[in-house]
Amino acid sequence: MTARSTVEGIRDERSVGRRPEQLPRLEDWIGEVWTRFWFTPADPRPLALIRIATGCLALALWWSYAADLEAWFGSDGMLPSRTRGAWRSPWGGSIFDLATTPTMLRGIYLIGGLVILALLAGLCTPVVSLLAPIFFASILQRGPMLAGPADDVVAVILWCLAIGRCGDAVSLDRLFFAGQAGPQVGSFRNRIAVSLLRVHASLLTIAALLAQLKGDVWWDGTAAWWLAARSADRTIDLTVPLAASLYATNLLTHAITLFEVVFALGVWCVPLRPLIVPLAVVCWPLLGLFAGEPFWGLAMAILALAFREAADRGRGGIL
Amino acid sequence: MLRATLTVLLCLYLVGFALCLAGNSGSGASAVVRTVKSRLFSPWMTPAWLDVGHDVRLTYGQPEDGGHRIEIRPWADLARGRTIVYPTSAIWGERAARWGRLARAIAVGEQDPDREGLLPAAVGVGGFRLVGAEDVSLRVLRQMMPESAVIASGGKGAPRFEQAYAARVRRVAGEIQLLTIEDPAELAPLVPEVAP
User: Fold this and answer.
1) What's this model's pTM, rounded to 2 decimal places?
2) What is the residue range of A300's domain?
3) Confidence band (pLDDT; 50, 70, 90) for B76?
4) Are residues A64 and A171 in the same domain?
5) Of A5, A216, B138, B185, whose Cβ has the fewest other Cβ atoms within 10 Å?
6) Nearest residue of B to residue A59, measured between CA atoms
7) Is residue A135 part of a domain?
């Protein structure tokens, strides 16, 4: 049964015994929307796409520790345990704390990489989808001052993937164990995972937007200049055209703010999604590249993919 | 029953997540948000790296928003000794960004009394092996962001750096000493004595 037919089924059940002129009660409507949003069985394919994209990104973030692993986390490294304690919350913990020798450190690190690789390939997904966020949170907890915005977003996505059945499609599990797995069916776990990703996409954008709007440069329109000028080794160098035109700088700054507002709120309007989701998939990486946080831009684009669903086509309304 | 349980868990998580956003905003948090978050949510959301503010400000146009780098040199031979710079031009991408965050954390962390001196001392000690000396100069350099008028007038040259933090880190009789070096530009100017 598809997600759409299930929703229609719920509507049909509710309408039995109700006079046609009678409007649905508010609590019935809220209950129906809540059930549809969180519990309607969902196709595993969108979640599989997010799993693959997140796996690639998590692997790149994992790899960024490789060359300096011992320089940072080694026994005579730059971030020994007493320093880490002052930076980390008392509730924080890391499996890297168990590493007392360089071999153990490299071993734990390598196992973590294999777990992320297995998640990417969809191998033993029920297990590795749970281990991947544990490992990822562990490496961030080991050196909290090294973590960036992309790490924060990827950690959220990995936990959401652990809730859903992200290995039910486009995975080695599917390839090897298709006989035992049976036909590819939707699951309410997939719906919860996708809905959580959607809520996070909106909340994280609002959090970033609110943080930005505390700075004067986002109001006086010069933020784009300061983003362009902040580092010498930027990938996209717009300093010359932006320095030549104040209006261009202002327009780019306001365009960034407008895009974030449109994404955070507009994406909940189902008829607008075919426009906003492709726009977000292109604009988030561009914004990340321009702001010197390319992986953060990619992570936000992955979150935007959670709004791409065939069941939404032709549907009106919100959520 | 399962749906009701999941609804309660989802509501609980979303409230916790919203409190984490509000409690890690970089602008401080109210006592009630801080207390509720730390008692009910931090114990299980912090280990999962979910107790995060996600306040990606991108830029405020402040000097602190410029790129940061670490420079370690042997104190005894500042001019000719082996100098280590992180990130170097050969380091790029997220690896360079992590070094930049570490450098920024050294400079910014000095304003926090609970963390003052801890990170520079640790990074300095980590640099002993790299430069082959147990008495080193540790500096955090911050790239100065040019004004748009300078670029518009064709004044784009090599990037300029300013000193965001400097210290001497050394091991004396097995004990680590951190001697902070004040930036001369930040010291109070000497006022010449004026005859009455």
Assistant:
1) 0.90
2) 194-319
3) confident
4) yes
5) B185
6) B94
7) yes
